[in-house]
Amino acid sequence: MIVKFKYTLLLTIFVNSLVFSQDKTIETYIPDEKTIIAEVWTIATNQEAEIISKKIINSIKANQEWMENYIRSLKLKPGEKMPFHKNFGVSRKDYLFFISSIDKLQLKKLKNINLNINKTPRNISFKFENNYLPVKDFTYDIESNSLITVHGVLDKFSVIDQSEGKSVLGKWIGLQWKKEIVTSINDSFRETIAIGKYKNKQSGIIYYDLKSSQYGSSYFVITYELK
């Protein structure tokens, strides 16, 4: 089952990705074959940490204006986690347990699927041949350097380097596209797709993350051989 719960919202609030400079060519991270067998993964969560996260989410909803001001006042740097505050609605002990659980998250394999990649002079399309994933396909537009999904255009581009840092995905580098509309904590839309490869092996990776007050939350990772 694809991860679909509010715990992933807290991962966004408490954990920031590292962004550095490197190869910006998408062709570096995808194979030449049109159809390949890929593996689908998701996050194996800690049940106790998920219960704590729901309590924090409920407290945040009850103190929404405070939380927004608090986040802005902290000015967290990449990799920094939010310090404990009584307004989180849990004890310091429970909060520290939740924070420590983030660093212990692991990927869990779900199943294999067929990934179809079709290249043209104008775009590259990615299609997942299954009825399992919440997203069936997306397209990379070469001219605009953006991704197009059923939800719209992801045109906020960045380069990811997790080759030295700690990541639940392991050591990898790649490219990321995002569409983000945040009116408030309870009214937001964020869709993120990253395409990259692992540092120490010839394996590619596609990362998908949706957090939406309208569509819910979905998260999955796809890996495949680059040879």
Describe the structure.
It is a single chain. By secondary structure, the chain is α+β, with helices and mostly antiparallel strands. It contains four helices and eleven strands, in the order αβαααββββββββββ. The chain has a domain of 143 residues. Helix content is 20%, strand content 41%. An eleven-stranded antiparallel β-sheet has the order 6-5-4-3-2-1-11-10-9-8-7, with no helix packed on it. It starts with 6 loop residues before the first helix and ends with a strand.
Give the topology.
Layout: H1 7-14, E1 35-44, H2 47-62, H3 64-74, H4 92-102, E2 106-119, E3 123-129, E4 137-141, E5 146-149, E6 152-154, E7 156-161, E8 172-184, E9 187-198, E10 203-212, E11 216-225
Antiparallel strand pairs: 1-2, 1-11, 2-3, 3-4, 4-5, 5-6, 7-8, 8-9, 9-10, 10-11
Helix pairs in contact: 2-4
| Helix and strand pattern | HEHHHEEEEEEEEEE
Helix content: 10-25%
User: How many runs of DSSP E, i.e. beta strands?
Assistant: 11
* Major beta sheet, strand line-up: 6-5-4-3-2-1-11-10-9-8-7
How far the N terminus sits from the C terminus, by CA atoms, comes to 29 Å
Specify the biggest β-sheet: 11 strands, antiparallel
Work out the radius of gyration.
Answer: 18 Å
Helix/strand/pairing category:
alpha+beta
Using the alpha-carbon principal axes, give the shape. globular
Please mark out the parts with pLDDT under 50 across 5 or more consecutive residues, or reply none.
1-9, 11-21
Total helices: the number is 4
Strand content: 35-45%
- The pLDDT mean sits at 83
